[in-house]
């Protein structure tokens, strides 16, 4: 363990932070979307019909479609980000190979902009260049750790799994209780799950849980209220 790690054990000094944040973001987003979207579907259908068959079918279809959609969306999005990072790193390699003095001057000025004196910045730039010029420019100039690029497969799997787990809760909650209790039980279960998801995401991200929890709970409540109203209105019209 380094001195920094021993002094600040809870701060993310270790490598792998980008991928940690990557799967955390995808996981929290997937779980939230799975809970809210599936709850909206099953509550909307439950408002239109008391039969379990249509509710179950709609819930399973929403779960499957949502998990695939979330995984694909995350994969495409993160792949684009990774391709952009790779292109920037390739350009930086070329510049270091063909314009080393210009790159040294550029690194010096970036360190000056961060508060170092011209002399200290020049010395630091030379030492960083001697140690690992590419890593120094990637991190100082581009803000990229070349050893820790974002992983599209990790984001896709995390999103799909968390969406599925989140979607199962409202689906089970709507099917188990008797007809008169389906919507109230699902509503309460979903709000509790959203509060837990928001708090867990804040804990893993080492931030305050209040705002993310409130956002998730309020958003979920509004979504369920809207879909219930639509289901009840269209159920009466169609019925």
Number of strands: 0
Helix content: over 70%
**Cα shape:** elongated
What is the alpha-carbon Rg in Å? 25 Å
Question: What's the multimeric state?
Answer: single chain
Main sheet characteristics: none
Q: Roughly what is the average pLDDT, rounded to an integer?
A: 84
Distance between the termini: 67 Å
How many helices? The count is: 8
Strand content: under 5%
**Secondary-structure element string:** HHHHHHHH
pLDDT < 50 stretches: 1-15
SS-derived structural category: mainly alpha
Report on the structure:
The protein has 239 residues and is mainly α. 82% of the residues lie in helices and 0% in strands. It contains eight helices and no strands. α2 (17-48) runs parallel beside α6.
Describe the structure concisely for a colleague.
The chain contains eight helices and no strands.
Describe how the helices and strands are arranged.
Layout: H1 3-7, H2 17-48, H3 52-98, H4 100-113, H5 118-140, H6 152-175, H7 182-204, H8 210-238
Keywords, separated by commas or semicolons:
239 residues; mainly alpha; 82% helix; elongated; disordered N terminus
């Amino acid at each position: 363990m380094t001195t920094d790690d021993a002094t600040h054990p809870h701060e993310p000094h270790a490598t792998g932070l980008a991928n940690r944040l990557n799967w955390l973001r995808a996981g929290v987003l997937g779980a939230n979307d799975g809970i809210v979207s599936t709850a909206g579907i099953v509550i909307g259908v439950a408002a239109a019909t008391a039969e379990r068959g249509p509710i179950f079918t709609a819930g399973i279809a929403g779960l499957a479609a949502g998990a695939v959609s979330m995984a694909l969306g995350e994969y495409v999005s993160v792949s684009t980000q990774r391709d952009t990072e790779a292109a920037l790193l390739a350009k930086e390699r070329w510049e270091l190979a063909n314009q080393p003095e210009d790159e040294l001057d550029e690194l010096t000025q970036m360190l000056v902009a961060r508060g170092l004196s011209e002399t200290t910045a020049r010395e630091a730039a030379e030492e960083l260049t001697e140690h690992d010029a590419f890593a120094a420019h990637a991190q100082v100039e581009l803000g990229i750790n070349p050893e820790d690029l974002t992983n599209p497969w990790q984001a896709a799997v995390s999103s799909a799994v968390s969406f599925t787990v989140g979607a199962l809760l409202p689906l089970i909650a709507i099917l188990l209780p008797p007809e008169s209790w389906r919507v109230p039980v699902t509503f309460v279960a979903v709000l509790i799950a959203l509060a837990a998801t928001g708090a867990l995401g804040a804990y893993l991200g080492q931030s305050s849980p209040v705002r993310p929890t409130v956002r998730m709970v309020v958003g979920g409540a509004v979504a369920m209220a809207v879909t219930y109203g639509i289901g009840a209105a269209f159920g009466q019209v169609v019925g």
